[in-house]
């Protein structure tokens, strides 16, 4: 295999949520960032990030922008994807505590619970070891009305669990094939390791 001759084109679904931070992180990780709002933009990317935001709103907007079926199709073909927080919810196969009409993308064999950490700890931060990404130097993980993974199928690698506190042991980062998801928001801390890991996944795919 020869090295790719161009930087990978990494899209950020730009319907809603913290799009700008992800675009900046993708650029810092050496990829070409592309905001994705239209079908032709989706067709142009090698991989896609689904940002944090609000999953039921994002679900509705995917329908409004005629992106739901095309995005499902690209994921079914094996396009690499990374979902953060609401993005993790969108990629899951099962969602607990959501609206009955919310649609999701079925790209990860996981059951997620929305807003799982409860009212007392809607937002919190912790230092997290993420398998294959942090290598002994934990990263600051910021959780904002985050989901956790309540069940994962056999093909799913668990990359991180909450180390302590009331949610100790809960799964908050997973990978299955070329699909990655975190409950937390690495785009807000300036730590680029999760984005670098994803950009490297996408680059490996286009080599
Ligand atoms: N609670 C949000 C949802 O259900 C996710 C929060 C986030 O992305 N920061 O979609």
Automatic annotation (TrEMBL):
Entry's PROSITE patterns?
Answer: GATASE_TYPE_1 (PS51273), PDXT_SNO_1 (PS01236), PDXT_SNO_2 (PS51130)
Write the Enzyme Commission number(s) for this entry. Answer: 4.3.3.6, 3.5.1.2
Biological process, per Gene Ontology: L-glutamine catabolic process; pyridoxal phosphate biosynthetic process; pyridoxine metabolic process
State whether keyword Hydrolase applies: yes
The entry's active site is 85, 185, 187
What are the GO cellular component annotations?
cytosol; glutaminase complex
Q: Which transformation does this protein catalyse, written as a reaction?
A: L-glutamine + H2O = L-glutamate + NH4(+); aldehydo-D-ribose 5-phosphate + D-glyceraldehyde 3-phosphate + L-glutamine = pyridoxal 5'-phosphate + L-glutamate + phosphate + 3 H2O + H(+)
The record, for InterPro entries, names: Class_I_gatase-like (IPR029062), PdxT/SNO (IPR002161), PdxT/SNO_CS (IPR021196)
Which superkingdom, per the lineage?
Bacteria
Q: In which pathway does it act?
A: Cofactor biosynthesis; pyridoxal 5'-phosphate biosynthesis
Pfam hit, one: SNO
What does the record give as the function of this protein?
Answer: Catalyzes the hydrolysis of glutamine to glutamate and ammonia as part of the biosynthesis of pyridoxal 5'-phosphate. The resulting ammonia molecule is channeled to the active site of PdxS.
Its family remark reads: Belongs to the glutaminase PdxT/SNO family.
Q: How does it assemble?
A: In the presence of PdxS, forms a dodecamer of heterodimers. Only shows activity in the heterodimer.
Name the record gives this protein: Pyridoxal 5'-phosphate synthase subunit PdxT
Organism annotation: Gordonia aichiensis NBRC 108223
């Amino acid at each position: 295999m020869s090295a790719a001759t161009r930087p990978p084109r990494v899209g950020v679904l730009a319907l809603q949520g913290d799009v700008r931070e992800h675009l900046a992180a993708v650029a810092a990780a050496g990829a070409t960032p592309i905001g994705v709002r239209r079908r032709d933009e989706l067709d142009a990317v090698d991989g896609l990030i689904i940002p944090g935001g609000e999953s039921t709103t994002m679900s509705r907007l995917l329908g409004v922008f005629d992106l739901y079926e095309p995005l499902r199709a690209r994921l079914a073909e094996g396009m690499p994807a990374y979902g953060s927080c609401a993005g993790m919810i969108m990629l899951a196969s099962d969602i607990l505590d959501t609206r009955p009409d919310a649609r999701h993308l079925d790209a990860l064999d996981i059951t997620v619970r929305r807003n799982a950490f409860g009212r007392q700890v809607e937002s919190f931060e912790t230092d997290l070891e993420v398998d294959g990404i942090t290598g002994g130097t934990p990263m600051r993980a910021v959780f904002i009305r985050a989901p956790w993974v309540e069940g994962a199928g056999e093909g799913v690698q668990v990359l991180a669990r909450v180390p302590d506190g009331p949610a100790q042991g809960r799964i908050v980062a997973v990978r299955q094939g070329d699909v990655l998801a975190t409950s937390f928001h690495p785009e807000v801390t300036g730590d680029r390791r999760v984005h670098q890991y994803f950009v490297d996944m996408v680059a490996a795919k286009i080599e």
